[in-house]
Every structure is written in structure tokens, then in C-alpha cells.
Amino acid sequence: MLKAIIFDFDGTVADTFDTIVAISNRLALEFGYKQAAPEEIEQIRNLSSREIIRQSGVSIFKLPFILRRLKNELNNEISRLNPLPGIDEALSELKMQGYRLGIITSNDRENVMLFMEKNKLQELFDFIYSGANIFGKSRVINRFLKQANLTPEEVIYVGDETRDIEAAKRSQIKMIAVSWGFNSKTVLAEHNPDFLIHHPNELIQVISTLR
């Protein structure tokens, strides 16, 4: 029986895509990688998370420093960001149905909390877990399962990137991929999530089949 629904933050709950692209482009010269031109954005959305890093030419050793700077820069923008259209209504409905809702993200917990408070969403979520490694979400998921005394069958993960699908598979939990965030529906489908949806109201329909 499904008890908890875990959400990614950036691109799944929060509309951060354009802001993250702008920050990443600002940091490009400092860290020595290629900026993303406007005409390249759609092409980037069709690449997996690992392909994007390889194509950018970013050294794997620089990645933690870039991610830290990006989080810090995002902190200055967080008060201007909004939820993805329709996600707040879907979250409210799922909460009313009795599910535990939470966030697992590679963003800073402080950024998430500021966003939740600004958009009056904090009462909807029971937990927020943050991990520094962008490819380490499965470890964070496993830690949550252990601390919450939940089995993989009692949890489902909702995310917008191929790395979210990879993390869910490693943790052996079901996964709902959403096409309104960073990665396109094409590349998400290629990574075989359990479900692929295109609007937040479809969350309610999918979850209803898992009761």
C-alpha cells in the first residue's frame, strides 16, 4: 500500500529551469565550460543528465564546486520563483487523501524552505532531505526509507530528470517522470520510468491506481 510520495524540487515542484540556466551561464567563464545558447536549450533537454555533463566539458572534479555556487546564487533568486502551474493543487489533493509528502533534492534545504514559505506550501510537506551529490539521490532515498521505517513498495518518487529515474531504480521504488521540467518527454521515455505524465493533475490519476 502506498504511504509516501517523494518529490524532486527543481523542475518538478519549483519552476527553476530558466533561472538555473541563467546562473549556469553566468558561472561558465569562471569554471571554464561552454555557455548554453538559447537555440541549444531544447537540444539540451533531450540529453540525459550524464550526457549534458559530458557535452559541457566540465571536469568531474569541478562539479561539486559549481553545484555549490549554483545553490548559493539560487538562494538570491528563490523569493522570485513560483511553483509549476497546477502542482500546488495536485499536492493539496494528495495531502488531503492522507499521503505523506516530501522532498528529496540536490538543492540546498534552505532554498527549499524559503521557497515553501514564500509560496505557502510548507504545511503540505512532512520531510525535506537534501544531498550534495547530484547523482547520489538513491543514497538519500535509502536513508529516508530506513529512518521512516518504510519499504520500497510503500513509496513512489516523482521527478523531471533522467537521474531521478536512475535513482528510483537503484532504490527499487516506483517512479513517475514528469515532462514539465528539465528533461524532455522523449529522453524520459527512453529511460523507462514506471509512469510518464505531462500535467500535474495526472498525478492524482496515477496515484489512484496504486492504492
> How would a textbook summarize the main sheet?
6 strands, parallel
Q: Give the class from helix and strand content and strand pairing.
A: alpha/beta
Strand content: 5-15%
> Alpha-carbon distance between the termini?
6 Å
Number of helices: 10
Instruction: Count all strands and give the number.
Output: 6
Uncertain segments: none
Mean pLDDT: 91
Across the major sheet, the strand order is 3-2-1-4-5-6
Mass-distribution shape? globular
Strand-and-helix sequence, N→C?
EHHHHHEHEHEHEHEH
Q: What level of helicity do the residues show?
A: 40-55%
Radius of gyration: 16 Å
Structure, described:
This protein has 211 residues and is an alpha/beta fold. The chain has ten helices and six strands. A six-stranded parallel sheet has the order 3-2-1-4-5-6, with helices on both faces. Helix 9 links the parallel strand 5 and strand 6. Helix 1 packs across helix 4 and helix 7 crosses helix 8. It is globular, with a radius of gyration of 16 Å. The model has no long low-confidence stretch (mean pLDDT 91).
